[in-house]
Structure formats: structure tokens, C-alpha cells
Amino acid sequence: MQLIRRLLPYLRPYWKEALIAPFLMLLEVAMDLAQPRLMQQIVDVGIAQLDMGIVLRTGLLMVGLSLVGMLGGVGNCVLGVRAGQGYGADLRDALYRKIQSLSFGNLDALGTGELVTRLTNDVTQIQEVVLISLRILVRAPLMLVGSLVMMIITSPRLALLLLALAPIVLIGLGIVIKYAHRLFSAVQKAIDGVNTVVQENLASVRVIKAFVRQDHERARFARANEELTGRTIRAERTVALFGPFLMMSLNLGIVGVIWFGGVQVTRGEAQIGQIMASVNYLTTTLMSLMMVGMLLTRISRAQASAERLIEVLDSEPLVVDAPDALAELPAQGQVDLQGVTFAYGSDGEEAVLDGVDLQIQPGQTVAILGATGSGKSTLVHLIPRFYDVKAGRLMVDHVDVREVQQRALRREVAIVMQEPFLFSGTIAENLRYGRPEATDEEIVLAAKLAQAHDFIMSFPDGYDTMLGQRGVNVSGGQKQRLAIARALVMRPAVLILDDSTSSVDVETEALIQNALEENLKGCTRIVVAQRISTVLNADSIVVLEGARIAAQGTHSELMERSPIYREIYESQLGNGVVVHG
């Protein structure tokens, strides 16, 4: 409960509903508890004395109290739902905002599938406990205590039967609660696994079909699904065993009340209506105890979800703005790396970059080459400060990126990722994503520079064409060109192209490079490429190997003095002829 209490501040905006709802439930409980006593009055007085007036008056009073109780119950439900749903929405919103504030390093550790589960299933578990608490958590204890008191008032002797049953029930309840938390924690982990598999499958369905791996993926999903099913069965079975156990205790109690009550009636020590009321109160007491048990198991499951939510809410971004960080960075495009060292994680893993020194002048085009895993993408991800360097400094226009607000830095440094992501919406909306105020003329110019204008205009709706989820209705090369255009709309001082033309044909790639060269004279361009033909005309080419810069210079210079570069060139172009840029 302590972890769940930490999430209760999100209920504060709905304090009126949360406060009034229990009072309405108290009204319903009071009306329900009065019914057996009134029934006793009908049996022991009205029927015993053949007084129909008492029967009718008491019967009408029971109907009236039932209507009052119904109004209390309905009001409790309405207010409880309003408070619970509002609470869930606010908690989900807070969790989403926290996720948006986290750095790449945080997201790498948490995982997309787990975050989806926490935003959906885990929030739902907490929300349902709040809904239940405003109804059952109020009703069950009130009914438990109230019916117990009323049974003592009705027949103190028969009430002693509860003393024999209560320890048995409480022991069973304790055993269930002991194991429920651990079991439901495992269930939530299994849901993570299913969500991860489903998300990967839906995102890569074309790859799966292309490689005819449907059977493999079905088996992979089946394993995750079976794991979830097995863990859920174990958890629910443990909880479900408590129900029959409690019903057995209830039936034993009823038998005991009828047995000993019958003996008292034959001796003239009790009346039939008194026995009927005692059975009713005993049933209510044990049923209330069952509700408390079920509620506690739900709380135990919610406790597991609360742990997972608090883990996210308590996460601090690994990349944060300094208190005195600059709010503006009128960048000219100079980038300096001074002894930059970086490794993923914080457990002393091998450095991806180790003591890298690199200076890029404003307006230069710098290409970065290297084998897979040489740190090319890592290097360019450090410039917009997706990660912080472990050692050294990274400067933009003589200002350490850690001394600039991330928002200001990323307004000046635009990056086109290896895997372009397009959002559902129109092409124009996607192009304006980084700069919503951009004019139609600006997005058209950016599209022309990215060689996207012609294919956009081939669609019937042009720039108003709706893109499907992840840009499913355009090709890979078209996605990359739209992503480049989106970055150009931002008018950045530094443009990073992280292998962003890999799906574009060589001719179109050359047109893009020429258009950028002619129209972005003052923009610094950093190009990560696999194809060496992409970078032949760069002002400077950087070759990464073993987490360090192995060579740097123009194409001609590197062909003369860098065996690594010459090997890359000859392996791709095949003739070893030096092409001067």
C-alpha cells in the first residue's frame, strides 16, 4: 500500500468526489444492514401475532430504505467512476510526460515494450484499485463491522460462532496475500514480453514476410503468450482457491447458526426471525470478508504495477540542462570534439569513442566512414546531446553543449536518422514537424532540395496526401527524402545525415548532394555514409576504427596515405583509380 499511496496525489483534483463517494456508500450500507432487523420484526412480531399492519408498515419501510440505499449506491458509483477515470488519465499523462523527458540512455534501459505495458496495463491496474477502493474498500469493512455488530445485538450467543471461523479465514487470506504480490509481478513481466514481441512483429511485418519467417515468429509469439498464460494461471489459481475456502467456511457457519439456533428455538430461548436475521448477518459478515480478501489481492497486484510506474516516475534524465544553461545559441556551425570519450551504460563497458579530437569549420561538409560498430552514429548523436560525453568536451561555436538548453541546441542541429520515422498525418504536417510555423513556400523548397517534390506532386492530394502509420504508403527511398526535407525545413546551422540516403538510388543521391551543396552554403553538413561515392567530394573525410580517428583528409589525401580508406574505396568501386573531388 505504501507504493500505491505514493501515487495518490494524482487523485487530489478529484478530492470532492473521493470524499463524498464514501459517505454515499455509508448510506447504502446503513440501509442494507437495517433490512435483516426489519425482516425479524415481520417474522417475530407481525407474522407471530398475525398483525398484518405491522407486516405492511415494516414491508413498506424496507422498500423505502432500499430506495434510499439505491440512491446512495448510484451516487457512489457515479462519483467513484468520475474520480477513478480522472485519476487514471492524469497518472497516464504524467507517466507519458516523464517518458518524453527521459534521455536516450534511459529509454535504452527501459525498453519500448515495457514502457507500453506501463502506460496501459499497469496504469489500468492502479486505476481499477482506486475505483474499487471508493466502493468495495468502503463497503466491505463497513458491512463487515456493521453486520458483526448487528449480529451481536441480534443474538450474542450465535455471534460467538464467528470467533471460531474468523481465525481460519484470516489464515487463508494471509497465505493468499503472501504469494499474490510475487506472482502478479511475474505476470506483469510476462505482459512486457508479449508486448515487445507484438510490437517488433507489427513494425517488421514486411521483413518477416520477405524472409518467410512467419512460422518462426508465430513460435516466438507462442512462447511469450504461453509464458503469460502460465504465469497468469498460477497467480489467478492462488487467488481463486480462497473463494471456495471462504464459501466452505460460510456454509459451516450457516449450518452452525441453524443447528444451535434451532436448539435455542426449541428451548424457547430464541425466535425464528432472530435466527433468520443471524444467518443473514453471518452471511453478510463472511461475504464482506471475502470482498476484503479479493480487494487485498487486487491491491497486491496493483502494488506490483505501482513499483513499475514509480520506477519510471522516479527516473531522472541522464541528460539535463544546467540551471544557468543558455536559452539561445545563434550557431554558425562550428563543431569541436576535444578528447571525447563515450561508452554506453555506466558499468565500465568498452569505450565506443576514445579520446576523439575533431574540428569542423562552419559551412564545411565532413563525411564519417568506418566499419559497422566503429562509432559513427554514436559520434553524431553526441552533437545534439542525445547522450553526454563521458570525458572530454564537445563544443558548438565554442560553447560546450552541456552549457546550452537542449531545446536551443536542437533548434540549430538537425539530424536525419538511419531509420526515418514518419507520423500518420499529411505530408505537409510531417515536413513542418520540427518547425510548425514554416510557410508553404519553405516546405516546398525543402522538398525540392531533398528531391521529394516531384513524387509528392504525383499524388492526387500533393502535400495534403495522408501518410499511413510509419509512412507505410511510401517507399523506403521516399521516406528518407521526406525525412531530409523535414530537417531542412528547420533551417539548421548544422545538418547531420546519418546514413540517410541508403535507400535512395545513386543518381537521386547525387542530385540531393548537389542541391544541398548549391543551396546550403552556410550550413555545416556532417554525413555518415556506407557508400564511399556519397562522400568523394566532402571537404574532409574522417575514418573511424577502434573507437578512434584512424585517418582524416580529402579523398585524394586519404587515397595516398590511408590504407584503410584505400581498401574501402577499392572494395566498393573496384578499380583503385583515384577520383579527385
Helix/strand layout:
Layout: H1 2-6, H2 15-47, H3 52-101, H4 104-110, H5 112-133, H6 136-154, H7 156-159, H8 161-203, H9 205-210, H10 214-240, H11 242-267, H12 272-313, E1 335-342, E2 353-360, E3 365-370, H13 376-382, E4 391-396, E5 399-400, H14 406-412, E6 413-416, E7 425-426, H15 427-431, H16 440-449, H17 453-457, E8 466-467, H18 476-489, E9 494-498, H19 506-519, E10 524-528, E11 540-545, E12 548-553, H20 555-561, H21 563-573
Parallel strand pairs: 3-10, 3-11, 6-9, 9-10
Antiparallel strand pairs: 1-2, 1-4, 4-5, 7-8, 11-12
Helix pairs in contact: 2-3, 2-6, 2-12, 3-5, 5-8, 5-12, 6-12, 8-10, 8-11, 8-12, 11-12, 16-18, 20-21
Describe it.
The chain is of the alpha/beta class. The chain folds into 2 domains: 2-313, ABC transporter type 1, transmembrane domain (ABC transporter transmembrane region fold), CATH 1.20.1560; 335-573, P-loop containing nucleotide triphosphate hydrolases (Rossmann fold), CATH 3.40.50.300. The protein has 21 helices and 12 strands. The protein has helices at 2-6, 15-47, 52-101, 104-110, 112-133, 136-154, 156-159, 161-203, 205-210, 214-240, 242-267, 272-313, 376-382, 406-412, 427-431, 440-449, 453-457, 476-489, 506-519, 555-561, 563-573; strands at 335-342, 353-360, 365-370, 391-396, 399-400, 413-416, 425-426, 466-467, 494-498, 524-528, 540-545, 548-553. The protein has a 6-stranded mixed beta sheet, sandwiched between helices. Helix 19 (506-519) links the parallel strand 9 and strand 10 (524-528). Helix 5 runs antiparallel to helix 12. 38% of the residues are buried. Mean pLDDT is 83; it is low at 576-581.
